[in-house]
Amino acid sequence: MLKSDVRSFWDQGSAGEFWAVGSEAKLRFLTEEKSRYQFEPFIPAFADFAAAADRVVLEIGIGMGCDHQQWARARPRRLLGTDLSRRSIAYTRERFDLFNLNSNLILADCECLPLSSGCVDIVYSWGVMHHTPDTRQAVREAHRVLRPGGTAKVMIYHKWSLTGYMLWMRYGLMRWRPWLGLEYIYANFLESPGTKAYTVDEARQLFDQFSDVRIAIQVNYGDLLQSEVGRRHRGPLLSIAKKLWPRWLIRRLLKRHGLYLLITAVK
Ligand SMILES: C[S@@+](CC[C@H](N)C(=O)[O-])C[C@H]1O[C@@H](n2cnc3c(N)ncnc32)[C@H](O)[C@@H]1O
């Protein structure tokens, strides 16, 4: 998989655009923000935006800039945001202009950050590093730019997820290709080409440079078939599944089969 393919995928549409509805830009950003935290209420608790006060914060992979806006509101000493896609930088710039917020927005690859070592207190990255070809290098870069004692808060995808099983049924089993592994399914049918997902042990290995690493599994709106689940996934079968999906049962019995790995790692 080429990084240019990843960039071109995200240049065609940013994550969360399906929530951004409304007649004018400000309204679209507000609608997206409302829906994002309605469907992903665990983000603020995990990110702990308030911890940014008077700190240097770097967000890697800002997308439409919704979480970045929360970091900015918490009055960090310095805020930096990066993304590989021009579309993401443009969206976030527009959002920050509209809401009168400040950040240093940089079009940059997370495998090679244009920052000096040890200059950041908090690195935050939500749903980004599994998209880049060399995820290990992306984690290494996050570690490098953090100061000793600094914290990385990172969400990457979990291999054993309901989302993965559903995609396998749709693109493996129903196409008479049950031998396709989950790696292939995530790489070809979830989001940008080459997307990866990790077991808890694999994620722990990725973060083995850090001194203290905590990992939690989180069921998301895709696992629960709530809301839109991305621009690649629409159709009558999905509409029927959404009506029949046993969400209460999943929340009770399949909590360890969520798509998200929430990783808190201290350097
Ligand atoms: C699923 S979106 C997540 C965006 C945002 N964090 C959010 O939660 O809405 C993935 C983002 O990662 C960015 N991305 C992918 N590969 C990257 C790389 N190598 N360096 C920086 N950003 C990258 C994409 O451009 C895209 O904006």
TrEMBL record:
- UniProt source species: Bradyrhizobium icense
Query: Tell me, what's a Pfam family for it?
Result: Methyltransf_25
**Which InterPro entries does its entry note?**
Erg6_SMT_methyltransf, Methyltransf_25, SAM-dependent_MTases_sf
Write down what this protein is called: Methyltransferase domain-containing protein
Q: Name one GO molecular function term.
A: S-adenosylmethionine-dependent methyltransferase activity
> Methyltransferase domain: which residues?
57-150
Lineage, broadest ranks: Bacteria, Pseudomonadati, Pseudomonadota, Alphaproteobacteria, Hyphomicrobiales
